[in-house]
Design brief:
The structure holds 2 protein chains of 2 kinds. Chain A is mainly α. Chain A is built from 25 helices and no strands. Chain A is globular and about 65 Å long. Chain B is α+β, with helices and mostly antiparallel strands. Chain B has a 6-stranded mixed β-sheet with strand order 6-7-8-3-9-10, sandwiched between helices. Chain B is globular. Classes of the chains: A mainly alpha, B alpha+beta.
């Protein structure tokens, strides 16, 4: 008998997985379900109401407002900008990621950080620095070039994260069956990064659709700038809502296109990392050219805006800074950012608990619904909230609360990505152990799981804070009268060409957002790549 | 220490979607005993534990612990109100708490101060390690902390889910002994699930063999091994030699000769399936008399060895004999075979089942070797 044992012992049987055993079976508690449904409604209601209002205006009105030459121009402008900008960002982002992760580029660790940094400078600040040097950057090419410099990290970061995690054995086996380096790149490496690349491109495209400040500064008209103008200049709610509905349509097309292009690309998901670091490709003599390229890119995307900013700060301070106004705006920005960050994380928590702990079709629907604002421009959400609150809750129109709700809706997806990932890494078995040791469901969550997901919650808070402090469009539309943030003060000064007076606000904004960015850099690759989870 | 409580499960059933996992399972665990539920992977063992722990709701049946109803048609007691301790597969210690805090997790503040934690650490032989964090412990130490944590609130019942699976073979036997000693000392009623027959037989007071969502046999380890209820259980709890035979008044005629029987009597002259264990079969020199055979292959384990023998009888499958390592014949040797002890017979018609068993066992073996890779991965992870 002993021998039979030895025999059996030699072939240890895989543990019947506790986690597998419970997948898809948890019946969500009704309270949790109710809370999450309410959050999903909060997120969807404004946009739903906006679309409903637009449809209710009637076909004649639609024709009158949409079938105009002006709208045609907007359509062409927006479409060409999105297509051109997204493609350039994709090529640039992939190239930077590949050189940094897969080659022996000298100083690649430093380049890896530097190449990600432009994401911390809001696009409207970047365009401000360029415009303040030369008005020649205004127009289509300037707009495309500048937003490309501002947004390519959205492609670079997720693609680099995938490249870092890819098993080098894949490329090596491709080489071993006789593929050259270029064919290997296109047949093996590129398909690996497809999902991350598409996700990044979607982010870039959506950002281009949503961007107001940069294009207004560059005097290039898109749907978003037109919506703002229609609303602010003529207070024509109907026309603005109509244009916003077209913009929503645009976003939906993008979402569907990305889903379609992604196809069944799940295989590209990479396991927990490779066993050994990949052997970097040798650049040989061409590395001097690549180095020059990197230098140029960082110079244009980061160096020049920063230098301009420093110049204007110096220039402006010689003319005297209104320190009181600066401090007040800083305080407002910090307060709003913190409030939005806490509220959003609080909203994200129950939704991610539902999605991670009680997966079901309903949970998926709720979770996806809360991701939708990610693809909706801030101006649409802001406009929708205005229309909705004027009709139903005039008391909250023009209050700080409404602004914070807008921030929360806009940045909920960011917070969700972070909390969801953290929760997924805290296995439910710990909560079950706590239950078996006498804790109720909520106590078990607090004692067993909360300590483990605190870093994730902190990341969520930081991400939302970052997004809020640099938010311009919704703030301009929704901020109560007399509430000035760093972004709106900067905007007020920059759009009246007081570059020197605007600079300190921009500098402070960048400085404030630098801290959470610094804390996030290591996680950013994973966090900025939400499409996989969507 | 613990108020030992008997567990009684009756007619328990549970299905996930279309697939029934438990179908009317009955099980009784006497107070203070250690019972092992033994079954192949995927037979519903983990589901049984999750139902007992209260993490899933049963579709039907009842669970009683001592005088309390934990679950029946009207009741579903929440996990925290069941007083059932749990030791999961990989320990699942709270990684953010040190050993003492893990052990004291289920205790009130006053109890934690009162030296109970130290007593429990002593019980599992881990005094002085209270300040360590889980990742600073070996796998076996983590398992013992998990046991101490489960025992701390003095549960009526402790459940152990393949608790030794994540440990490597050398450590396993030792940790088993320690866990068993701690359970004895605490006097707790314990239910352990495992797919490892050696673990079940060597560790438990009583073994319940699970198959197809129900318990097919529950008895002490010797009975399970010696008198399994059918050929499939026989083959699952140890290596089995199954032969066809014909009954003849307390004896059975087989390819290995006329053997004395025990077990279900049937009419003389009817066919039967005969169970022998390899250690009952002795290989002797060819001159010793008795049925002759040819050694096909041998497998050496150190302390003993097995030989596959072809009896040259077309109606008889190849048989396996076990011998002490130094007495092992060589492949190609001609041997004569003798049988020690009595043979267990199953009623006729079991023969087809016997062949089915071999097929199923072959499948199970395939599953095992495939999943062993996963097992290693899991351990590494």
């Amino acid at each position: 008998m002993e021998a039979a044992t030895a025999q059996r012992r030699g072939v240890a049987v895989a543990p019947t997985s506790w986690r597998r055993a419970r997948r898809g079976r948890g019946r969500p508690p009704l309270g949790l379900l109710a809370i999450c449904t309410a959050i999903a409604l909060l997120v969807l209601a404004p946009v739903g109401y906006l679309l409903d209002q637009t449809l209710a205006t009637g076909w004649d009105e639609v024709q009158r407002l949409l079938f105009r030459e002006f709208v045609g121009t907007l359509l062409v402008n927006t479409a060409t900008l999105v297509v051109a900008g997204t493609i350039v960002c994709a090529v640039l982002g992939v190239a930077v990621a590949w050189f940094v992760e897969c080659t022996d580029l000298p100083g690649r660790r430093v380049w890896a950080v530097l190449a990600a940094l432009p994401i911390t400078v809001p696009a409207f600040v970047t365009s401000y620095s360029w415009v303040s040097i030369t008005p020649a950057v205004q127009g289509f090419w300037g707009a495309t070039g500048i937003v490309t410099l501002a947004y390519y990290p959205l492609v670079y970061l997720p693609v680099a994260a995938v490249l870092r995690g890819t098993d080098p054995a894949l490329e090596e086996s491709a080489r071993s069956v006789g593929m050259g380096p270029w064919r290997t790149f296109f047949r093996v490496t590129l398909p690996q990064m497809r999902i991350a690349l598409l996700g990044g491109m979607l982010l870039v495209a959506v950002h281009m659709l949503s961007e107001y400040g940069a294009f207004a500064m560059l005097r290039f008209q898109t749907f978003t700038t037109a919506i703002y103008d229609e609303y602010k200049l003529s207070f024509d709610g109907a026309a603005a809502s109509m244009l916003a509905s077209v913009l929503v349509l645009f976003c939906l097309v993008l979402l569907v296109a990305e889903l379609g292009a992604r196809g069944r690309g799940r295989y590209a998901r990479v396991d927990s990392g490779s066993a050994r670091p990949p052997t970097p490709a040798r650049l040989g003599r061409s590395r001097w050219g690549v180095l020059a390229g990197f230098g140029g890119l960082i110079g244009l995307a980061l160096g020049l805006p920063m230098a301009t900013l420093v110049y204007w700060v110096a220039d402006g301070s010689s003319a005297g800074i209104d320190l009181a106004a600066l401090l007040a705006a800083t305080g407002t920005s910090l307060k709003l950012g913190l409030g939005a960050a806490l509220l959003t994380t609080l909203l994200a928590l129950p939704v991610s608990v539902l999605a991670v702990r009680h997966p079901s079709r309903l949970a998926t629907v709720i979770e996806r619904a809360t991701y939708l604002p990610f693809a909706l421009p801030g101006i649409v959400i802001a406009l929708a909230l205005i229309v909705l609150s004027i009709h139903y809750l005039p008391a909250i129109y023009g209050t700080t609360q409404l602004l914070i709700v807008a921030y929360a809706i806009l940045s909920l997806p960011l917070a969700l990505v972070a909390t969801r990932a953290a929760l997924a890494q805290a296995p439910p078995v710990h909560e079950e152990m706590a239950r078996s040791l006498g804790c109720g469901p909520l106590t078990a969550m607090i004692r067993a799981t909360l300590p483990r997901i605190l870093p994730g919650l902190a990341a969520a808070t930081a991400l939302v804070f970052l997004a809020t402090v640099t938010e311009l469009t919704a703030t301009l539309l929704l901020a109560p009268i007399g509430t000035e943030t760093l972004a709106t003060e900067f905007w007020a000064k920059a759009s009246t060409l007081s570059y020197g007076a605007a600079a300190p606000y921009a500098a402070l904004m960048v400085a404030i957002s630098a801290l959470p960015t610094y804390l996030l850099t290591r996680r950013l690759g994973g966090v900025v790549a939400p499409p996989e989870e969507r | 220490m613990s108020p030992a409580t008997p567990l009684s499960v009756a007619g328990l059933s549970k299905a996930f979607g279309e697939a029934p996992v438990l179908s009317g399972l009955d099980l009784d665990v006497p107070a203070g005993s250690l019972t092992a539920v033994l079954g192949p992977s995927g037979c519903g063992k983990t589901t049984l534990l999750r139902l007992l722990g209260g993490f899933e709701r049963a579709d039907g049946g009842s669970i009683r612990l001592g005088g309390r109803v934990l679950c029946d048609a009207r009741t579903h007691l929440a996990p925290e109100r069941r007083a059932i301790g749990f030791v999961p597969q990989e320990g699942a210690l709270f990684p953010h708490l040190d050993v003492a805090a893990n052990v004291g997790f289920g205790l009130s503040r006053a109890e934690r101060r009162g030296g109970r934690v130290q007593d429990l650490l002593a019980l599992v032989d881990l005094e002085g390690l209270g300040k360590r964090l889980p990742h600073q412990l070996s796998g076996g130490q983590q398992q013992r902390v998990a046991l101490a944590r489960a025992l701390a609130p003095e549960p009526g019942l402790v459940l152990l889910d393949e608790p030794f699976d994540a440990l490597d073979a050398a450590l396993r036997a030792q940790v088993r002994g320690e866990v068993r000693a701690a359970l004895r000392a605490a006097g707790a009623t314990a239910l352990l699930v495992t797919h490892d027959q050696e673990e079940a037989l060597s560790l438990a007071d009583s073994v319940a063999v699970m198959r197809g969502g129900r318990i097919v046999q529950a008895a002490d380890p010797q009975t399970i091994y010696r008198d399994p209820v059918d050929a499939e259980v026989a083959a699952f709890v140890g290596e089995a030699v199954l032969l066809e035979g014909r009954l003849d008044g307390g004896y059975v005629e087989t390819a290995l000769g006329r053997l004395r029987t025990r077990g279900a009597a049937a009419a003389d002259g009817s066919g039967a399936t005969v169970l022998l264990r390899p250690e009952q079969i002795l290989c002797q020199g060819p001159a010793a008399g008795g049925p002759r055979g040819l050694v096909l292959s041998t497998t050496f384990y150190g302390h003993d060895a097995t030989a596959r023998i072809d009896l040259g009888d077309p109606g008889c499958r190849k048989i396996v004999a076990r011998a002490a390592g130094h007495l092992l014949p060589q492949a190609g040797d001609a041997v004569s075979v003798a049988v020690e002890g009595t043979a267990l017979v199953f009623p006729a018609g079991d023969d087809s089942q016997g062949q089915g068993v071999e097929r199923r066992l072959a499948l199970a073996d395939g599953r095992r070797s495939r999943s062993s890779a996963c097992g290693r991965n899991a351990t590494g992870y």
